[in-house]
């Protein structure tokens, strides 16, 4: 009985030590919270924008979120979602280029086989597909392999 | 022997005894120093000093307590795997039943805290089935209650706390929260009538929008079929009406889950900051 | 009675005599403890202990171990700062020099332009040659004959090295312009050209569908609907051309990523051609 317990404890020790990480920095007390993490980010319904194109995109997105997106269920498999993708694209480029990026995204959304070994996955389970990869600026592309898990934004 | 030599002998023996005591003190001092660092919340340094003691001290006197305190230091830094590793070492070096129980409970508490509650339940079962710990059944039940809190099963948590005491404070908190939580299954069932689920969760605007869309697309679908425009009816029915109908159910369920999460976090915040009893 | 008492008092004496004089913080004991921590892989604490020694028990081994420890912790810059203080006459200088080159590559993948040093033995010289040669792959103006490039490597390494060489000389990039032109001619074909078959077929179907709906509605004199479908179709068509160019760029970024990732893995597997130091025997 005692031997069995020792073997059990040693194996537990081996398993727990395999999860230990090298201490790289002198650490301190951490704030451990009992609370559960909330993944769903609240939508920003403000109309804050830097130019007319962005204002137009923001207005469209706000209306879409309020009247349609919230009540038609979880349909977008991507993160950022298609409407956020349009907004972020307008912020990074201009309304014309953002529209092209949006229609390309929409086409990719309709691809039934999009889940097959293509996009990295966000920890919430969505496909990670950021607009900065599509601005046609090679230097802005941050390629991540499909095996990569992206932290929830 | 003369009285002078007697006195000399006694003095010599006393000196030797004092030397022995002070020799022991070197390690005891190191232990106390490390413990003081722990108490001052200098956890990294405390671990270093406990490790130093364990490295140089050849006996077993400090193994249990040092490993336990190293584990607690790592736990304070949210380094849970390291904490469990040292609590296990503490258990391996334990010399009494009490020490075994204490180190095992610490492992359970870490598993509760990092929400690996299945592991916590398995360890609690092992303690419960061990005859040596029959007398500790109250404490086992207490931690089982906490494990259920962290598994989101507030009803079962309440039942275990009430085993300890009829009106146990934790039992009342868990019971009260369990009554307040929305039942996502009920919300989904109510949403068979568009908007009803949202109304039940207090989201009236979303409920009204949902009703609006469902009435509109429902009318257009039925109208198309009545006018023999089957293709239009199918398209509007499947692409729009069904989308908003199923979306209405998802939307109501999402509200219920979100609100439950808020209430749960509120209760957990209270337990962490204001509850004065033992906590993981 | 006195004999018994004497024995009782004296027996523990040898046991505690060591402890009586024991100083946890003597330089020798700090070093012993630091060495133990180093062997346990607790480099951070080991370095902290070595630092306490200051000049008391400073020697070449300790200095090199601190450098190695920082490198193991991923603090490559810090490791190379230690290297700056390593004496040229130290027996660990050649090893420290090679380690500093590894650190350099890990700080920023780049071509190593450092020259060899006279104190390298034949094994270390070979490591140096392999490391500097492989680092050439990080140079934008890569221009070295194949034979010369693979010559420092062992037989078992040559296949992998050759694959990296080919990758560098002739990367299998796709042309973004061609992808755009192809999609302009046949919607979706640019995506197919960059191996995005699913997206390509979807684009072809969606654009064709809107084109058909527009054509059909114009024929049926449903002009409003026809123009809506035309507009949507045009956006999908243009979006697809745009997306094909973007996809080709992402394809090329993937090629670069796989090359760099593969090279990093290859070097890591071989510890950047450095020997494994074992101070814990």
3D architecture notes:
The complex is a heterotrimer of chains A (153), B (280) and C (281). Chain A has 153 residues and is mainly alpha-helical. Chain A has helices at 2-18, 52-69, 82-92, 95-110; strands spanning 78-79, 121-122, 127-128, 149-150. Chain A has a domain at 78-153. Chain A has 4 helices and 4 strands, in the order ααβααβββ. In chain A, strands 1-3 form a two-stranded parallel sheet. In chain A, strands 2-4 form a two-stranded parallel sheet. Chain A starts with a helix and ends with a strand. By secondary structure, chain B is mostly helical. Chain B has helices at residues 3-39, 43-56, 63-76, 80-92, 97-113, 117-128, 137-150, 154-164, 169-180, 184-190, 196-200, 204-226, 230-273. The model of chain B has no long low-confidence stretch (mean pLDDT 91). Chain C is built from 14 helices and no strands. The relative contact order of chain C is 0.08. The model of chain C has no long low-confidence stretch (mean pLDDT 90). Chain A binds chain B through residues 6, 9-10, 12-13, 16-17, 19-21, 23, 26-30, 32-36, 38, 40, 66-67, 70-75, and chain B through 41, 43-44, 76-79, 81-82, 84-85, 88-89, 91-92, 113, 150, 206, 209-210, 213, 243-244, 246-251, 254, 258, 261, 264-265, 268-269, 271-272.
The quaternary organization reads as heterotrimer
What is the string of helix and strand elements of chain C?
Answer: HHHHHHHHHHHHHH
Quantity of strands of chain C, as a count: 0
How would you spell out the order of helices and strands of chain A?
HHEHHEEE
Identify the overall geometry of chain C: elongated
- Categorize the overall geometry of chain A: elongated
Strand content of chain A is: 5-15%
Query: Which strand order spans the largest sheet of chain A, edge to edge or round the barrel?
Result: 1-3
Number of helices of chain C: 14
The CA-CA distance between the termini of chain A, in Å, is: 49 Å
The secondary structure category of chain C is mainly alpha
* Beta-strand content estimate of chain C: under 5%
Largest sheet of chain C: none
Q: Report the C-alpha radius of gyration of chain C, rounded.
A: 33 Å
Number of helix segments of chain A? 4
Major sheet characteristics of chain A: 2 strands, parallel
- C-alpha end-to-end distance of chain C: 50 Å
């Amino acid at each position: 009985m005692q031997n069995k317990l020792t073997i059990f404890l040693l194996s537990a020790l081996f398993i727990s030590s395999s999860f230990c990480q090298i201490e790289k920095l002198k650490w301190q007390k951490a704030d451990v919270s009992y609370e559960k993490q909330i993944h769903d980010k609240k939508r920003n319904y403000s109309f804050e924008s830097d130019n007319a194109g962005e204002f137009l995109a923001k207005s469209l997105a706000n209306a879409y979120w309020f009247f349609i997106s919230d009540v038609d269920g979880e349909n977008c498999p991507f993160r950022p979602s298609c409407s956020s993708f349009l907004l972020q694209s307008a912020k990074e480029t201009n309304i014309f280029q953002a529209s092209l990026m949006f229609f390309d995204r929409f086409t990719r959304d309709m691809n039934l086989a999009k889940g097959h070994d293509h996009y990295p996955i966000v920890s919430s389970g969505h496909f990670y597909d950021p607009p900065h990869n599509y601005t046609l600026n090679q230097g802005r592309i941050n390629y991540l392999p499909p095996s990569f898990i992206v932290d929830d934004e | 022997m003369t009285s002078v030599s007697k006195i000399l002998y006694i003095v010599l023996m006393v000196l030797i005894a004092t030397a022995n005591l002070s020799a022991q003190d070197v390690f005891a001092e190191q232990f106390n120093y490390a413990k003081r660092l722990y108490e001052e919340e200098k956890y990294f340094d405390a671990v270093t000093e406990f490790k130093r003691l364990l490295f140089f001290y050849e006996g077993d006197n400090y193994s249990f307590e040092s490993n336990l305190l190293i584990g607690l230091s790592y736990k304070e830094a949210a380094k849970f795997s390291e904490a469990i590793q040292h609590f296990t070492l503490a258990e391996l070096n334990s010399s009494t039943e009490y020490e075994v129980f204490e180190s095992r409970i610490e492992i359970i508490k870490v598993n509760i805290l990092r929400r690996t509650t299945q592991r916590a339940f398995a360890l609690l079962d092992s303690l419960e089935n061990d005859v040596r710990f029959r007398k500790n059944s109250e404490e086992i039940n207490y931690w089982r209650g906490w494990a259920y809190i962290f598994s989101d099963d507030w009803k079962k948590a309440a039942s275990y706390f009430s085993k300890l005491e009829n009106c146990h404070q934790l039992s009342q908190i868990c019971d009260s929260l369990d009554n307040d939580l929305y039942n996502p299954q009920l919300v989904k069932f109510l949403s068979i009538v568009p908007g009803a689920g949202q109304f039940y969760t207090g989201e009236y605007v979303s409920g009204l929008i949902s009703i609006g869309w469902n009435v509109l697309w429902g009318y257009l679908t039925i109208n198309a079929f009545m006018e023999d425009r089957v293709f239009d009816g199918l398209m509007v029915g499947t692409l729009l009406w069904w989308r908003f109908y199923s979306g209405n159910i998802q939307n109501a369920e999402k509200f219920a889950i979100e609100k439950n999460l808020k209430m749960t976090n509120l209760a957990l915040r209270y337990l962490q900051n204001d509850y004065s009893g033992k906590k993981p | 009675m006195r004999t018994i008492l004497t024995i009782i008092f004296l027996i523990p004496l040898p046991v505690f005599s060591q402890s009586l004089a024991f100083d946890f913080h003597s330089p020798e004991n700090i070093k012993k403890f630091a060495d133990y921590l180093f062997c346990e892989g607790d480099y951070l604490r080991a370095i902290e202990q070595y630092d306490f020694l200051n000049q008391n028990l400073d020697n070449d081994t300790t200095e090199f171990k601190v450098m190695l420890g920082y490198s193991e912790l991923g603090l490559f810059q810090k490791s190379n700062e230690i290297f700056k203080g390593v004496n040229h006459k130290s027996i660990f200088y050649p090893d420290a020099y090679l380690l500093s080159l590894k650190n350099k590559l890990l700080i920023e993948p780049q071509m190593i332009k450092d020259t060899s040093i006279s104190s390298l033995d034949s094994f270390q010289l070979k490591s140096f040659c392999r490391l500097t040669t492989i680092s050439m792959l990080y140079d934008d103006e890569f221009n070295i004959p194949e034979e010369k490039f693979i010559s420092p490597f062992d037989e078992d390494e040559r296949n992998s090295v050759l694959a990296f060489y080919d990758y560098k000389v002739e990367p299998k990039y796709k042309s973004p312009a061609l992808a755009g032109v192809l999609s302009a001619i046949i919607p979706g074909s640019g995506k197919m050209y960059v191996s995005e078959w699913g997206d390509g077929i979807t684009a072809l179907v969606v654009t064709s569908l809107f084109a058909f709906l527009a054509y059909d509605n114009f024929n049926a004199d449903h002009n409003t609907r026809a123009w809506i479908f035309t507009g949507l179709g045009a956006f999908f068509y243009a979006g697809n051309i745009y997306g094909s160019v973007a996809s080709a760029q992402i394809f090329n970024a993937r090629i670069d990523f796989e090359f760099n990732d593969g090279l990093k893995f290859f070097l890591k597997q071989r510890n950047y051609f450095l020997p494994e130091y074992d101070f814990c025997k």
